């Protein structure tokens, strides 16, 4: 989603997580049939996790967000180019003609291998950018045309680091809700490591905090990032891209594929 190579694996994750939460009410009803759910549980405090958590609140739910780092933000705060979206209000205001179809075509030409994920990424991108602008009072009015794009669709404001600006706005919004109400909780230095199952349904997770395991119940949204910083011999990086094991990375040390591993385990 961000226009920098550091975030090559981020776009689809952001959109899938964000837009699935739009149907939060339906998700809560479904979960309630298999387990009493009074909250959603989000793993990861980057842009994907914060977007998901804020939309749970927006849809009337409660949310618990856990992040294993000492502070939220993740890799999202490092983005320096902007956030991509097609057919946005900012584009229309500047006379830029763009469409979901054109963005989809550009993305597939750029090497995407999963059309169903590209469809979600591009189809929701415009609404996502407009949501950030309208709900968090962000300035994303500056447009740029980056490599691989047919038209200017990378949005940013005047700030030097748009990723940090966008992500912190969402963090601050969730923190305000957590401070003033019981509808949001943020727990840092909390490493999620196991999904709790009731038959085929995920009903919560286990996270480690201060050396002690804690259970958190509710629908789980995994937004914990990739595995580009896990250089151990049994890592996902070693499994899928052993040719990259000798290279340095700009990923934060938190990027060890925890959410992927939890999902694979069930």
Question: Any descriptors?
Answer:
alpha/beta, four-stranded parallel beta sheet, three-stranded antiparallel beta sheet, 18% strand, disordered N terminus
Q: Unreliable segments (pLDDT under 50, ≥5 consecutive)?
A: 1-34
| Overall outline | globular
Strand order of the largest sheet: 6-2-1-10
User: Would you count the extended β strands for me?
Assistant: 10
* First-last Cα distance: 28 Å
In percent terms, what proportion of residues is strand? Answer: 15-25%
Going by helix content, strand content and strand pairing, the class is: alpha/beta
Order of helices and strands: HHEHEEHHHEEHEEEEEHH
Radius of gyration: 18 Å
Q: Mean pLDDT, as a whole number?
A: 87
- Residues in helix, %: 25-40%
Largest sheet entry: 4 strands, parallel
Continuous helix count: 9
List the helices and strands and how they pair.
Blueprint: H1 11-21, H2 24-34, E1 40-43, H3 47-58, E2 63-67, E3 83-84, H4 89-93, H5 100-109, H6 115-136, E4 142-144, E5 154-156, H7 162-180, E6 184-188, E7 190-198, E8 201-209, E9 212-217, E10 220-222, H8 236-240, H9 258-265
Parallel strand pairs: 1-2, 1-10, 2-6
Antiparallel strand pairs: 3-5, 4-5, 7-8, 8-9
Helix pairs in contact: 1-3, 1-6, 3-7, 5-6
Task: Walk me through this protein's architecture.
This protein is α/β, with parallel strands linked by helices and 266 residues long. 39% of the residues lie in helices and 18% in strands. The protein has helices at residues 11-21, 24-34, 47-58, 89-93, 100-109, 115-136, 162-180, 236-240, 258-265, and strands at residues 40-43, 63-67, 83-84, 142-144, 154-156, 184-188, 190-198, 201-209, 212-217, 220-222. Helix 1 crosses helix 6. It is globular, with a radius of gyration of 18 Å. The two termini are 28 Å apart.
